[in-house]
Amino acid sequence: MSALARYHLMIGNTVAGYDRTSSAITEELIAHGAKVTYSSIVDPEIVSDRVIYTPAVPKDHPWMLHFLQRQVPMLKRSEALSEIADLYQCIAVAGTHGKTTTSSILAHILNQTNMGVNAFVGGVMTNNNSNFIWNKETTFMVAEADEYDRSLLRLNPQFAILTNAESDHLDVYENEAALLDTFSSFFGKLPSNGIAIANESVPQKVLGNVQAKIFRYGWSEDSDYQAIDVSVVNGKYHFDLLHNQGLIGRFSTSLPGRHNVLNATAALAMGHQLGVSVESLNKSLNTYLGVKRRFELIVQNDDCIYIDDYAHHPSEIHVLLQALREMYPDQKILGVFQPHLYSRTRDFMDEFAQELKALDSLILLDIYPAREEPIAGINSKTLLEKINLENKKVVHSDQLIDEILKAEFDVLVTIGAGDIDQWVQPIKKALTS
Fold first, then answer.
1. Cα distance between residue 68 and residue 51, in whole Å
2. Is-contact 56 33, C-beta < 8 A?
3. In what order do the strands lie in the sheet with 159-162?
4. pLDDT tens across 400-428, in order?
5. b (16+ CB within 10 A) / e for 123-150
6. Cα separation of 46 and 246, whole Å?
7. Are 325 and 355 in contact (CB under 8 A)?
8. Whose CB among 52, 169, 192, 242 lies 3.0–4.6 Å from 211's, allowing a Cys bridge?
C-alpha cells in the first residue's frame, strides 16, 4: 500500500490515507506530502477522486463505509497495481514464501543496469530504504504478486518467478488444490514469448498450461539453473551457479540461509534470461543489502545478538531457525513469536509446534488478529501446550521486555508478521542501555 502511495506522490497526485498506528513508513509518507490519519472517526474534509484499499481492511470500517456511501470509485490494491503494471513489461514474483526477498534482489539487479526498473516490493529494501523504486525511463517493472485473495490474477505479466507453492491462506482457499489452481491460472497468463522461472519443488501441474518458456531452478542436476558448492565464509554464503550444466559463475551474498541462496538463484536466473551480464549479476548480488525484517540484524555486541524476522508460516520459521543454527552454532537461542491470524494458527497448529521446539527457549505473544475475529479454542496457550520445549511461556506484550531481560540467551530472534515490529526498537534500547 505504501509503495502505491509513494508512486502517486511521485507522479504529482494528492495522497491521503488511513492506518491503525503510526510507523516509520507513515511518517515518511507524511514527510513526502501525504496526509495520514490514525483515527477511525471519519474526517469529512478528506475527499477523494478514488480510493485504493487493502482487503485487510474490514468492509464495515467507517472509512470504507464513508467512501462507499459517497460512491467514490474503489479499487483493491491489486487492481491499482495492475493498472500501473500494464504500462510496463511486468516481471511478477509469486510464491507462498520468498516473494519479497526474490523480487527485491531482482529489482536491485535491474536497477544497477542500463535497463533500469520500477519496483513495488512487499518490504523495505535496505539499499533504497524504500519498498518502491521509480525510474521513468525504463520499460521494466518488478511487482510482488500476492496470492492472498487471488490478487495475483489481476496482473498480466510478461515474465514471472514462482518461488514455491505451499499451503497458506486457507481462510481464502478451501484447500491446497485451490491454491495450486490459482498459481496455475496465473502462470497460464504468460504470453508465448514470455519467461517463467519456477522452483524445482513446484508441482508440474501448476505449469501444465504455460505457453511461455519455462526454466526450473534449485539444487538438483535436473534444474536448468542449479546452485552447487555452497559454503559459508565470514558470514557470507558463496555458491556456484550452473545453467544447463555450464558454469555461469561463482556468486556471494550476505543474506543468511540456504533458502536465500535459492531466492538469489531465482533472481539471477531471470536476470540472466533478460540479458544481464554475468559481471553485472555478480556485482549486483554482492552489493545487495537485504530487506527490513528479513533476518535483520538489530544488535550485535559482546553480550548478545538480536535478529528480527517477518516469518509467519511454519516453513518460514523452519528456514529461519535453520539459518540461525548454521550461523550461530552452539549458541542459546531465545525466540519471541507472535502468531499471525487465528485461522493460520488453527490450520498449522501442529506444524508451528514442530518448528518452534527447535528453539532453546520461547516467549509466545498473543495471536495478532489482523482482519479476523477470534476463533473458539484457538489461542497462544493452546499452541504453547503443543510445543515440546521445557523453557516456554505465554507473555502479554506489556511484559515482554522484562521477560527478555530476565532470560538467558546468546541470540534473540523476534518472529512474526503482526505488530511485533513495533517492539524492535524498544527491545534494542533495552538490550543496549
1. 10
2. no
3. 130-133, 118-125, 140-144, 89-94, 159-162, 195-199, 213-218, 225-233, 236-243, 246-253
4. 999 999 999 999 999 999 999 999 999 99
5. bbbbbbebbbbbeeebebbbbbbbbebb
6. 59
7. no
8. 192
Are 419 and 368 in contact by the 8 Å Cβ rule? The answer is: yes
Q: Which residues contact 129 (CB under 8 A, 6 or more apart)?
A: none
CA gap 131, 107 in Å, rounded: 10
Q: Compute the Cα dihedral for 222, 223, 229, 231 and give only its sign.
A: negative
Euclidean distance between CA atoms 433 and 431, whole angstroms: 6
Q: Are 4 and 81 in contact (CB under 8 A)?
A: yes
Q: Report whether 190 contacts 157 (CB < 8 A).
A: yes
Angle, alpha carbons 205-161-184 (nearest 5°): 25
Residue pair 404/417 in contact by the 8 Å Cβ criterion: no
Residues 6+ apart with CB under 8 A from 158: 89, 90, 91, 190, 191, 193, 194, 195
